[in-house]
Amino acid sequence: xxxxxxxxxxxxxxxxxxxxxxxxxxxxxxxxxxxxxxxxxxxxxxxxxxxxxxxxxxxxxxxxxxxxxxxxxxxxxxxxxxxxxxxxxxxxxxxxxxxxxxxxxxxxxxxxxxxxxxxxxxxxxxxxxxxxxxxxxxxxxxxxxxxxxxxxxxxxxxxxxxxxxxxxxxxxxxxxxxxxxxxxxxxxxxxxxxxxxxxxxxxxxxxxxxxxxxxxxxxxxxxxxxxxxxxxxxxxxxxxxxxxxxxxxxxxxxxxxxxxxxxxxxxx
Length: 268
Hints:
The chain is mainly alpha-helical. It contains eleven helices and no strands.
């Protein structure tokens, strides 16, 4: 028997297309397609009453699929570290409800909501934070008054210079009173609670009075009493009012929240 194979048959066999061997390392696209197929089979099985899970047979695709699905199966939030922490509705509602008792509730919420994670639902911490915010703004206003006085030295009219000087003094007193109040808040506990809260109320009330007095020289004019001199008008008064009014409103809100602590049975 002749075993010789003609060259023409060999060339013809070599020219035929050959299927590529299967790739043992599937692509992400192929894995995704398998996921869709698995989900579809599971959906159909559930409709038929089957509960057995469907497995992926490829020994390399299965571990990769597990890695792809891990973020979705662990239930962990996919939030980047740069995003701010979210406040819980309970904390937010607590701040809004507490601020509703103040004279300027919108300002109260706007300035305290950033500290929600610290305040939580603690009324003492809420009042302490409000007082701290008021003190910070009072310091900034005092520094602004000082810069204004230095930059306008010799350019102000006598009545403006006197009003600005008086405002700086009273605002400085308010800063000291708010600082003393905030320091006392750190000791607001135990049997001396009533005594200490009374001191705090007195100091914050005095600070609020000084902040209001700051504008008297601008509203009444030099000579006082509302008729003994000309009113201060224009840019200086606008700048001072813009600084002092916000401080006075923040202090008013802080005082309202502090007054609310009087009914607290177990202060923190």
